[in-house]
Specification:
Length: about 375
Amino acid sequence: MTRSDSRSIAVVGGDGIGPEVTAQGRRILALIAEKRSLPITLTDGDYGIEAYEKRGRMWPESTRIAMAEADAVLFGAIGGTSYPLPPKLHKTDSLLAVRRSLDVFVNLRPVKTSPALYEASSLKPRVLEGVDLIIVRELLGGIYFGEPRGVETLPGGERRGVNTHIYTSSQIQRVARAAFDIARTRKGRVCSVAKENVMEAGQLWREEVQAIHDARYPDVELSHMLVDHCAMQLVRAPAQFDVLLTDNLFGDILSDSAAMVTGSLGMLPSASLGVVREDGRRGALYEPVHGSAPDIAGKDLANPIGSILSVAMMLRFSLGMPKEADLVERAVSDALESGARTADIAIGRKYISTVEMGDAVASKLASLLN
Ligand SMILES: NC(=O)C1=CN([C@@H]2O[C@H](COP(=O)(O)OP(=O)(O)OC[C@H]3O[C@@H](n4cnc5c(N)ncnc54)[C@H](O)[C@@H]3O)[C@@H](O)[C@H]2O)C=CC1
Ligand SMILES: CC(C)CC(=O)C(=O)O
Ligand SMILES: [Mg+2]
């Protein structure tokens, strides 16, 4: 990005800890814009259960427009304490609907360990050494989107909940291409994870991934693993993985598990990207992997690093600023190495607040940017 390209970013904190962590991601982005004299416009928008309860609109028109027109969206989290989401809103206003509206079909979730946080992980240091993997998750298909869905009452009064797991070959092919392209920029290994031993959609997944590999990416090493086995390997020997390619549901579950190798779910960032359109733009949604964490919301306790590292991904994938992306990641490492810890990664040490962790990273970044 140069000084003449202006960019607009929609900033949507959402519910629970979403606004708390997003405020810290936002300030890191604003700091870079200021230090590099870049014309980045940040537009804040309301969204979520709290917006619905307070103002009767979960996804107000102004936020829809800001998201649709933005070069990228920085998002926090959605979710209240009461379940479920009002059913009439599920189709139109849920996070799934947001992702569909932005057409972001691939979700990237990098997982990298840092020796400074080995003690915060539930796993042994020898298991954590050298872990640097990325989960490439299909984001617009599978059981979260399949029709029919719903809860129905059968004759006789029994109730039945229905969800449908569907994948088409083109959905699998496009996410597989994304995973192989990413592997070429890394260690060149893709492990495709499905459940083809019992699911037909899993058989199709495996066949399509293998076919794309054989036709276009023979230089990338491809392996296949059943998802239950993968869940075990992620905690037995996570350093074996480079790129983990998987579907929407499995990627959701495996990424929360994988988060613990880094010490906390609060550490993980994500980028969700769409196809590059004719005008050169693409849907881009950046959000931490965690949810709204109602158990710690409003207490200034949440770890904002997932949001801050999501800003690094935005700099790399949407703003064309890979050097600044590296600097944000370095500022996070420097802050952790100098002892900054939120409660989730403190393990008996003194801990600091969400805002103070933002201060610690911002101060390291400011000196790196000078
Ligand atoms: N992308 C999103 O917006 C997501 C939304 N959700 C929603 O969030 C709500 C809560 O769901 P949960 O299952 O409790 O998952 P969660 O991810 O919100 O929290 C799980 C656990 O991790 C902790 N945690 C999460 N983020 C943290 C952070 N940044 N710093 C420190 N600790 C953190 C929480 O305190 C909690 O103990 C639900 O309404 C759920 O639907 C859940 C996952 C993703
Ligand atoms: C809407 C949910 C699938 C959100 C979630 O848990 C995730 O994307 O990790
Ligand atoms: Mg999840």
